[in-house]
Structure formats: structure tokens, C-alpha cells
């Protein structure tokens, strides 16, 4: 009877709050960081700088998998129990790694890496090319109904309460989502990231079940094989765009070609795989 109801834990609340705070802190880096680069660099250099930003962002999960691999080799109660008293190994199904240690290391590293942002200047000297209207703004003005120039009164910072009320927010949202190029790119990004995240999430578990690998080794293999090629591809894409000075249409054709090749190669996954393990009571009868 004592095994029917296990003691509950509320540690998941701390993980939920920590993930929420991490997301709040990480979110401004991509939109504001790209805008910061776009405003204060030459237009032909923007693809390389943005590619570097996303490449470094892909290195984070890679090191995260490697850190997870290291932590999974350590027993969950490390520091609280005598290592000599542990009679099981990481290959044992009862083994639980020190999953909590990665949160402490990652949190401390994120805190330290955020300190340099406090010393970034509010504004940099713009190059001559950047003082002109950007292509993105011209694209929005051409496809949207409102093509009015920004006046000094409109460039003043507005309060959140003012931005979310009335026609200002509605018109801005309608102008952005009404841009066919941006909306199509948004839909493509949703599909690509959804498939990529699902692939990275379940691939380690697949390796554990099908190949009999430990959690530590599965995370290590994912970290050194799956994510570095993605970062390399992002960086090479930025270099190619800079070398050939691609505009909106050329970049769209380039993206279409690469996405189609990626899709065609991904179809090969249907021809590669292993048979499911025989599990009594699930795939076969107990007899």
C-alpha cells in the first residue's frame, strides 16, 4: 500500500520559473541583436555578422549536450553520498545522472555572459551606407498600404500602454503580417524549427533504445555530430550571401534551393532504421 502513492515534489515549479526567466532574458538577443548589427554595419557585411550570431547560438546546444553527457556520468546525489557506496553504473537502467548540475553551471555562465551587455554603447557611428533607408523598410513600404516617412514625432519612444492600444499596434501588426515575403518566411521557420527540435529531442532516446547506449554517450554523440554541421551551414550561408552580394530575390532563390535539397535528403530517413525490440506484453504476448 505504501508504494501506491509516491511522495510528490514541487521541484518542477523551480524549473518552470527558471526556464521562463531564461526565455525572457534570451528573447531580446535575436531581434534586437540583429537590428543592432543591421543599423551600424555596412549592408554587405550584415549576412556574415548575422550568420556568426546564429552559429554561436548553435554552439550553445552543442556544449549543452556535452555538459549533459558529463553530468549524466555523475550520480544524482553526488556530493551527498559516498561514491564508493554506489553499486550501479551509468549503463544500469536504475542509474539517474546529476541532471541538476547542468542547470547550476549553465545559469552561472549565462549570468556572467550577460554582464558585458551592460557596457555596450547605446549608439555607434553609422557608416554612410547605413544612413540610407534600409531595404527591409522599403520592402514593407512597397507591399503595405502605409508608406509614410517616419517623422521625428513618430520616432520618439512610446509607452507600452500607448503601443498596445488603439490603431498604432493594430496597424503595425497588420503591416508586418501583410508582407507576403515576411509571412512566408515566418511559416517556413515554424516548420523547420519544429522538425529540427523534434529530431534533436528524440534522437538521443532513440539511440539509447535501439543501440543500447547510455544517456551520457547518447548526449555526447548528438552534441558532436548533429549540431556542428548546422552551425557550419549557417556560417557558410552568410559567407556566400556576402560574396555574391545577394538581394532579396537572390536570397529567396538561394533559400528555396537549399531547403529543397534538405527536404530531398531528409526523405532518406524513411529507408534507414532498426526493427523495434521485442517487448513482452506490448509487441508480443507473454507466452
TrEMBL record:
Family statement drawn from the similarity comment of this UniProt entry: Belongs to the organo anion transporter (TC 2.A.60) family.
Sequence segments annotated as region (Disordered): 130-150
UniProt KW keywords: Disulfide bond, Ion transport, Membrane, Transmembrane, Transmembrane helix, Transport
Main localization category: membrane
InterPro entries per record: MFS_trans_sf, OATP
Gene3D superfamilies noted in UniProt: MFS general substrate transporter like domains (1.20.1250.20)
Cellular localization per UniProt: Cell membrane; Membrane
NCBIfam families, sorted: oat
Pfam families in the record: OATP
Gene: Slco1c1_1
GO CC annotation, single: basolateral plasma membrane
Residues passing through the membrane, by range: 12-34, 46-76, 96-120, 181-200, 220-241, 253-272
A GO BP annotation: monoatomic ion transport
Membrane topology: Multi-pass membrane protein
Gene Ontology MF, one: sodium-independent organic anion transmembrane transporter activity
Protein name stated in the entry: Solute carrier organic anion transporter family member
Amino acid at each position: 500500500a505504501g508504494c501506491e502513492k509516491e511522495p510528490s515534489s514541487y521541484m518542477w515549479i523551480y524549473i518552470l520559473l527558471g526556464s521562463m526567466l531564461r526565455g525572457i532574458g534570451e528573447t531580446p538577443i535575436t531581434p534586437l541583436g540583429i537590428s543592432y548589427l543591421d543599423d551600424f554595419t555596412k549592408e554587405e557585411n550584415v549576412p556574415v555578422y548575422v550568420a556568426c550570431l546564429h552559429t554561436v547560438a548553435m554552439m550553445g546546444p552543442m556544449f549543452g549536450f556535452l555538459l549533459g553527457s558529463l553530468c549524466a556520468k555523475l550520480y544524482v546525489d553526488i556530493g551527498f553520498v559516498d561514491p564508493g557506496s554506489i553499486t550501479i553504473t551509468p549503463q544500469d537502467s536504475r542509474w539517474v545522472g546529476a541532471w541538476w548540475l547542468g542547470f547550476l553551471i549553465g545559469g552561472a555562465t549565462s549570468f556572467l555572459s550577460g554582464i558585458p551587455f551592460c557596457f555596450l554603447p547605446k549608439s555607434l557611428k553609422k557608416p554612410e551606407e547605413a544612413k540610407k533607408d534600409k531595404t527591409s523598410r522599403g520592402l514593407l513600404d512597397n507591399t503595405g498600404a502605409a508608406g509614410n516617412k517616419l517623422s521625428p514625432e513618430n520616432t520618439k519612444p512610446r509607452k507600452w500602454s500607448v503601443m498596445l492600444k488603439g490603431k498604432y499596434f493594430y496597424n503595425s501588426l497588420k503591416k508586418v503580417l501583410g508582407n507576403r515575403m515576411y509571412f512566408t518566411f515566418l511559416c517556413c521557420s515554424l516548420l523547420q524549427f519544429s522538425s529540427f527540435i523534434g529530431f534533436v529531442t528524440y534522437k538521443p532516446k532513440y539511440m539509447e533504445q535501439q543501440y543500447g547506449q547510455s544517456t551520457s554517450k547518447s548526449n555526447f554523440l548528438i552534441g558532436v555530430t548533429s549540431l556542428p554541421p548546422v552551425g557550419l551551414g549557417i556560417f557558410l550561408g552568410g559567407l556566400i550571401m556576402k560574396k555574391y552580394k545577394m538581394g532579396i530575390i537572390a536570397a529567396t532563390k538561394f533559400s528555396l534551393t537549399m531547403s529543397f535539397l534538405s527536404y530531398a535528403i531528409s526523405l532518406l530517413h524513411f529507408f534507414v532504421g532498426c526493427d523495434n525490440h521485442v517487448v513482452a506484453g506490448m509487441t508480443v504476448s507473454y507466452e
